[in-house]
């Protein structure tokens, strides 16, 4: 039994070493990847259920590694956060997204543009300046940019993060509470955060077709958010049944594979112009 246990330890040690080596090699290639054009931004449309129009997009970072193929943000964002690369990635995404919003406007589409902001970046005092600089460089109004933030810890109203969020809102930017319903501070965020939007996490949406309880939960979230004047977005809408149920429940906007996957900017533009032509 002793032998088995020590084998197990060796295995765990090797696995951890392997994991660490993998992370370091990923990090080294990430540094090159942005300059090489391996990192790019995909856009996923947000459909307004009242007007039946695409009124916004979410920017989602993509990394197509020349040998390893696509590496999902769920893998490399965490590593980027851990090794102080998140500011650089976010600058890249913001720049692309703001430019896309301005280009869309030139094409006749006035849309909001949503960008994900890692919790760690909210503690970086350089963030408001970076955003202001990018908006000014492209000439986009701050109220067209939505920062999607994920609840992590409890929201302490005397914290640096809270002060940062207030400062961002005062500068005219909009906030969205991402993955709503999954964190441990959901109600805190709704109470105290000057967010204009709530995004219901896709884990609720994917099960609401089959689970009556989840359907009721989604209904309650929509009612609660509406009573506080928040716009409600459902993410991960994959079926027509989903879409119809959310329409009945009075959800404002939907996003998901049923409407479109996140796609390169050119394809996003064809998608919206195809819908307009219909
Ligand atoms: P998120 O912000 O919650 O984004 C939603 C995720 O759901 C995206 O995964 C999107 O591609 C995926 N999705 C969209 N529609 C559907 C659907 O109908 N069904 C299903 N199953 N999934 C759908 P993705 O692009 O892999 O991103 C994963 C996470 O990585 C994001 O979750 C976000 O937290 C993070 N992320 C992505 N881009 C950035 C970025 O530029 N900066 C930061 N800090 N984080 C990012
Ligand atoms: Ca998001
Ligand atoms: Ca989300
Ligand atoms: Ca998420």
From TrEMBL:
Signal peptide: none annotated. It comes from the Bacteria. Residues 23-276 form the EAL domain. This is Diguanylate phosphodiesterase. The chain holds residues 487 to 764 of 767 of the full protein.
């Amino acid at each position: 039994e002793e032998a088995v246990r020590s084998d197990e330890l060796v295995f765990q040690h090797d696995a951890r070493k392997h994991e660490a080596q993998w992370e370091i090699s990923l990090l080294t290639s990430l540094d090159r990847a942005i300059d090489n054009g391996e990192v790019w931004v995909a856009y996923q449309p947000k459909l307004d259920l009242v007007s039946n129009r695409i009124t916004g997009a979410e920017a989602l970072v993509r990394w197509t590694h020349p040998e390893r193929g696509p590496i999902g943000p769920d893998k490399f964002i965490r590593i980027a956060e851990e090794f102080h690369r998140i500011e650089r990635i976010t600058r890249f995404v913001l720049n692309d997204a703001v430019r896309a919003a301005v280009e869309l406007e030139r094409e006749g589409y006035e849309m909001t543009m949503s960008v994900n902001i890692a919790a760690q970046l909210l503690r970086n005092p350089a963030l408001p300046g970076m955003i202001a600089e990018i908006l000014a460089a492209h000439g986009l109004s701050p109220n067209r940019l939505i920062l999607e933030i994920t609840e992590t810890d409890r929201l302490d109203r005397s914290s640096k993060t809270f002060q940062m969020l207030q400062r961002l809102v005062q500068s005219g930017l909009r906030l969205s509470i991402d993955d709503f319903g999954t964190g441990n501070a959901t109600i805190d965020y709704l109470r105290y955060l000057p967010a204009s939007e709530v995004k219901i996490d896709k884990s609720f949406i994917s099960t609401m077709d089959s689970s009556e309880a989840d359907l009721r939960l989604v209904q309650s979230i929509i009612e609660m958010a509406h009573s506080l004047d928040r716009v409600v977005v459902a993410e991960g809408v994959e079926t027509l049944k989903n879409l119809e149920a959310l329409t009945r429940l009075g959800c404002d906007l939907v996003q998901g594979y049923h409407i479109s996957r996140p796609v390169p900017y050119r394809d996003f533009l064809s998608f919206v112009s195809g819908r307009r032509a219909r």
